[in-house]
Amino acid sequence: MIRPDGVPGVAFGTALDGDPRLDDAIRLELSGLLEIPSSWAWVRQMHGVTVVEPDRPGLGAEADALITTDPALPIAISVADCLPVALVADGAVGLVHAGWRGAAAGVVAAAASALAARGHPPRAAVIGPGIGSCCFEVGEDVAKQFPENRAHTSWGAVSVDLQGVVAADLDEIDVHVVSGCTHHEDRFHSYRRDGSSLRQFGVAWVPSA
Fold first, then answer.
1. I want to staple 94 with a disulfide (CB 3.0 to 4.6 A). Which of 9, 54, 67, 122 is the partner?
2. What is the CATH number of the domain that holds 141?
3. Residue 209 predicted with pLDDT over 80
4. Residue 28 pLDDT grade (very low, low, confident, very high; cuts 50, 70, 90)
């Protein structure tokens, strides 16, 4: 499990941590390690820009970002190449599932705006492990949507720096990037690499005072 230095209320899983969507025992164990409530709120991820504020744990609406001000309700997403992005504010947190479609549409900025509208503008963000530009081979139809973040894979194909895309949407706050490429590092699940239905988690919560 990855706990970003200096940013409380955020954790990212690896393949070794298991999939807490599918196994209650895993979620209970992780919650104990993190010292947070064991009932998490999830969403049905759609690669869109919808932001929700859940009022109960469990699987909720179709969305790709969650925000909460409730210390008793951790929010969570699952990823296996897309980026998990946590937004940290005073008294609130947000969590975003950001693939290239969501990034192009502005899902991270939408979540930051939703927090600000609730009176909790983000003061920091953490971009968790996802596929790196070293491995994210794309066609020209995708690359042309990100002209400022066009890159190349380690084998010379066209790629996109998704971490750079997300960071650019958060240019007025402190952004932390957790290193790690899900595609070429075996410690992560990767849909592109092996078609796995397994995922690693991102979870965020409002630390108790």
1. 67
2. 3.60.140.10
3. no
4. very high
Q: Is 175 a domain residue? A: yes
Strand 65-68 with 41-44, pairing: unpaired
Nearest to 161 by CA among 183, 179, 143: 143
Q: Residue 78: inside a domain, yes or no?
A: yes
Residue 73 has φ and ψ, to the nearest 5°, of: -130, 90
DSSP category for residue 17: G
**For residue 157, what pLDDT is reported?**
96
Average pLDDT over residues 194-202: 90
- Cα–Cα distance measured from residue 180 to residue 66, given in angstroms and rounded to the nearest whole number: 23
Spell out the residues 6+ positions from residue 140 whose beta carbon is closer than 8 angstroms to its own: 158
Q: Are strands 150-152 and 158-160 parallel, antiparallel or unpaired?
A: antiparallel
Distance CA 142, CA 140 (A): 5
Nearest C-alpha neighbor of 82 from the set 45, 123, 124, 30: 45
Convert the pLDDT of each residue in 44-78 to its tens digit: 999 999 999 999 999 999 999 999 999 999 999 99
- Cα angle 158, 160, 162; round to 5: 165
- Mean pLDDT for the stretch of residues 171-197: 91
